[in-house]
Specification:
It contains seven helices and twelve strands. The protein is an alpha+beta fold and 242 residues long. It has a four-stranded mixed sheet with strand order 5-9-8-7. The protein has a three-stranded antiparallel sheet with strand order 1-11-3, with no helix packed on it. It is globular, with a radius of gyration of 17 Å. The relative contact order is 0.27.
Length: 242
Amino acid sequence: MSGPVQDATTSSGGSSEGSFRPGLCTFMAEWDEEGVFLYQAFNSEIADWALEHQQFGGPGFNPTRMTWVKPSFAWVLYRSGYGRKHNQERILKIKVPHAALAKLLARCSCKHGGGGSLGRVQWDPARDLLSADGREPRKRRDRAIQIGLKGRLSELYVQSVLSIQDCTDLAHDVGKIHSLKDPREVARGMEALKHELPVETPYMPPCDEAVLKKLLLQESEPGDSEAPRHAPHRVMGHRPRR
C-alpha cells in the first residue's frame, strides 16, 4: 500500500469544483499525517457520551448497526438539516488513522441501494459549504463519498477512533447564514466564518490498486471485472504529489 496522496490544489474553508473526467471520483477530506476526519450526526445522549469518553459507546449506542460516515462537512449538514433533525441534533467530527480507513474501504462494495455487503461506498452529488440553494448547501456537479458500515466493519470503525470533536455550534452558524435570502449576504457571512471551516482537499487512501479501482478512485484497465459499469464523474486537479 502507498501512503495518502494530496492533490497540489488546496481549498480553504470548503472545497471547490473542477473539470470532469468520466469514470473517476475524488475523495475530498480534511486530513493530516495522523489520520482523516469524518462526520456523523447523533442524538445528544450518544454525542455527550462519545465526547466525554473520546470513543463511541454507552447505553444508547449500537456498535454493529449500519452507520454512515462522511468526510464532507457540507454533506453531513445537508443530511442532518444543519443538526436540526430528530436524533441528528449533534454533529461530531471523528478522526481515524489512515490505515484503519484503508482497511474499511478495502472491505466495501461500490454501489447504491440495498445489498448484503457489510460495507458500501456511494458517490452522491457533492454539496457546497460556501453557498446555499433553498436553505441547504448548494448541490454541485461533482460527487462526494459516503461510507456505510455495519456489523464487524462498524465495530472496527468504532475501535479505530483517535479523537472526537463537537461541531454542532459551527453547523448551526452555517445553517443561519445559509437561510439568508440574499446570496450576497450568504457569501459575506460564509467569508466571515471561513477561518472556522474545515479545509478539505483531494485525498488518496493508502489502499491497494485493486481497491482504488473498485471504489472509482483509480482508472481501471480494460477487462477489469471489479469496477462498476456505471461510474460517476471525478473532479480533476493537478498531478498528485506525495
